[in-house]
Amino acid sequence: MIREEAVPTLLVYKEIVPGDVRKLLGESNDAKTGGGARDLRFPAKPFGPVMRRIFTIDAVGKNERPIKIANVMYLDASGKIATTPLEYWPATTARPTEDRIAKVHASPALGGKTPDTTKGRIFVLFSQFSNGMVRCDYAYEDDLRRNGLWAQEVRDAVLGCLTSTDMKNSTRTVNLAPVQGYYDFTNGARYCHAD
What we know:
By secondary structure, the protein is α+β, with helices and mostly antiparallel strands. The protein contains four helices and ten strands; from the N terminus they run βαβαββββββααββ. The chain has one domain (8-192): At1g16640 B3 domain (Beta Barrel). Strands 1, 2, 3, 4, 5, 6, 7, 8, 9 and 10 form a ten-stranded mixed β-sheet that branches. A hairpin with a 5-residue loop joins strand 4 and strand 5.
């Protein structure tokens, strides 16, 4: 019997900016007056349908709100493969245009391994495979620019969006667009939030 190799089907990426690093470290509550959300936010309209392809397990969150969960694989501190759940929450009335991956500081896949800040800009990648497996990885700009470290489709999607976002932001001083998007390996569809 020939066993089919799992292949990537979907990639979602988001730049981790200094404020996100503070969230991952559990230091986002600067004023000590409450709040200090420790989540990664995505525009609900373009990302919601794609994220629900990754976060497929129905669950119930705080205040009986329906949420989605994905069991993501990651490399732990010793380099071994581990699995942990991540929660994807829908938009709220307070933030009706944003969905979020919640409790990132408590996740060993995200907050449990703080990204290296010496390799250029940082991106978190969520990769779904044909066997249903979901991986969570950090990718660094320096590594993405080197051939052979990441698949060409990943490099093209993330670096293309980075260039597009930087061009858009070059004419702004406030409300800078984040580098975030997705690539569908099955049909070649791309989305960059800055486009």
